[in-house]
Amino acid sequence: MNVLVIGATGRTGRHAVTRLLEGGHDVTAFARTPSAVTTRDRLRVVQGDARDADSIDRAVQGQDAVLVAFGARSLNRDNVQEVLMRNLIAAMKKHGVRRLVNLSGWGSGGAAVPARNLFARYFFLPVVLRHVLADKSRGEALLFQSDLDYTNVCPAFLKNSPARGHVRASIDGAGLRQFMHREDLAAFMVDQLTSRQWVRRCVAIGY
Predict the structure, then answer these.
(1) Structurally, what CATH architecture does the domain formed by 2-206 represent?
(2) Cα separation of 153 and 189, whole Å?
(3) How far from chain centre, in Å, is Cα 111?
(4) How far is CA 198 from CA 40, 60, 102, in A?
(5) What is the pTM (predicted TM-score) of this model?
(6) Rounded to an integer, what distance in angstroms lies between the CA atom of residue 127 and that of residue 58?
(7) How many CA atoms lie within 13 A of 126 on its CB side?
(8) Residue 85: which of 32, 131, 143 has the closest Cα?
(9) pLDDT for 11
(10) How many whole angstroms from its chain centre is CA 130?
(11) Is 67 in contact with 3 (CB distance < 8 Å)?
(12) Per-residue CA distances from 192 to 94, 103, 128 (Å)
């Protein structure tokens, strides 16, 4: 499978690229700074920017699926994730690419139960991350209105720890431990590219 990874230089995206290559896929890494991507067999690196529709269009051409592990660049008010999603949906429709696995966040676009941590529920999410979440929500609204075969993956708090396996998933997140190791997150996202279980759904994941 030919897979485009957007956000390939990020902490989750790098794990996803490795997992895809280990699975025998041909990967295109979309990066603003191509030199930040380590050259490997079956890995092509293309330079581009989320706001540049032409570069996204060129990267999508010839792909079988897209994995988005793109994160916010700052906590300030922005529309980069909304613009990325608009550009990506247009390019995928143009080139007939239907499968998209998108990195979201716990509760975003779905019905996941509230964060159990009170600091996160009443301050970190609604205050510190308010602009980031608003931007992501606008982008996801475009995604949900599209006819793409998307899976919107919603982890809770992310940790940069080795994979531990035994990832659990559900629509509402009830009963899940609300944290996720990035290596496990990347593995789950890659697995969804060839699964129909959560197509056109928001899925909460944890342990």
Answers:
(1) 3-Layer(aba) Sandwich (3.40)
(2) 7
(3) 18
(4) 31, 22, 12
(5) 0.93
(6) 37
(7) 8
(8) 143
(9) 94
(10) 19
(11) yes
(12) 23, 12, 30
**CA nearest to 66, candidates 43, 92, 41, 44:** 92
Measure Cα distances from 143 to 49, 134, 139, 176, 179 in Å.
19, 14, 6, 26, 25
Q: Are 69 and 103 in contact (CB under 8 A)?
A: yes
Ramachandran category for residue 19: left, alpha or beta (phi over 0 → left; psi -120 to 50 → alpha): alpha
Q: How far apart are CA 105 and CA 136, in angstroms?
A: 9
At residue 189, the pLDDT reads 98
Walk along the chain (207 residues) and give the pLDDT tens digit of each residue.
999 999 999 999 999 999 999 999 999 999 999 999 988 999 999 999 999 999 999 999 999 999 999 977 777 777 999 999 999 999 999 999 999 999 998 867 665 777 777 666 666 666 666 777 787 889 999 999 999 999 999 998 899 999 999 999 999 888 899 899 999 999 999 999 999 999 999 999 999
Q: Distance between terminal CA atoms of the chain?
A: 29
